[in-house]
Design brief:
It is a single chain. This protein is an all-alpha fold. The chain has one domain. Helix content is 73%, strand content 0%. The longest helix is centred in the C-terminal third of the chain and has 39 residues. It is elongated, with a radius of gyration of 16 Å.
Length: 132
């Protein structure tokens, strides 16, 4: 199978409905905003997890293209979300607000991701059954 150039991801992203493009840009901004709280150890974890997720997603894109399987790229957000929720009570002021917004964003994104990945594997299974 031919691998795609991962940098084409952004070209294909701009070809998606505008709400998808805006959502992805928002996800990038909210994760990179962790840099504003760099003195917090959790902010470093958020940023590193974002970078690892981006690398994983580019690998998925290279292999599968702009498909619903890309939701798997956020799998690391599940344990991160649990950790953030455990730490939000102890956070102060702006960092606490950031963690709450990040948590809500993760929950919404993970719901989309779970639905997309489920659809991907359901359709794939259906296609495999009808092909045989």
């Amino acid at each position: 199978m031919k691998m795609r150039n991962p940098f084409r991801f952004f070209t294909e992203l701009m070809q998606q409905p505008i709400w998808i493009s805006l959502w992805v840009v928002f996800l990038m901004i909210i994760n990179v905003a962790s840099i504003l709280f760099w003195n917090e150890p959790l902010a470093k974890v958020i940023f590193v997890t974002f970078m690892l997720s981006a690398i994983f997603m580019m690998g998925l894109y290279s292999r599968f293209g702009f498909e619903k399987i890309l939701g798997m790229g956020h799998v690391l957000w599940i344990p991160l979300l649990v950790y953030v929720l455990m730490e939000v009570q102890a956070a102060n002021d702006a960092f606490k607000i950031y963690l709450i917004i990040l948590s809500v964003t993760f929950v919404v994104s993970l719901v989309f991701d779970i639905v997309d990945v489920w659809k991907y594997f359901t359709c794939r299974k259906k296609n495999l059954l009808t092909a045989s």
